[in-house]
């Protein structure tokens, strides 16, 4: 996850708004989808209901949102297969950007 945060942490708004190389969504939308997926994995690991992660107006907040949900996932102490799934999602997102 840290590799992805380092990859996108310095991006300015035009780069976030650009269409991702895989698909027809913006890079910001793609990273937000990842943030939501990590939040869902965390909720599942904690036995809590899933909640929507707000899509903020400023895409520059996405790296921080990713850090928060990643920290929450690790704190939940999920099984290895959940961590593997999260790693797969991160790798897929990095490739798609």
Automatic annotation (TrEMBL):
Name this protein carries in UniProt: Uncharacterized protein
Annotated source species: Micromonospora craterilacus
């Amino acid at each position: 996850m840290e590799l992805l945060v380092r990859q996108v942490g310095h991006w300015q708004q035009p780069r976030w708004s650009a269409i991702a190389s895989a698909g027809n969504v913006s890079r910001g939308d793609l990273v937000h989808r990842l943030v939501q997926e990590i939040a869902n994995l965390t909720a599942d690991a904690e036995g809590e209901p899933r909640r929507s992660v707000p899509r903020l107006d400023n895409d520059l907040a996405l790296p921080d949102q990713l850090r928060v949900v990643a920290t929450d996932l690790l704190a939940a102490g999920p099984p290895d297969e959940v961590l593997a799934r999260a790693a797969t999602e991160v790798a897929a997102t990095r490739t798609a950007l």
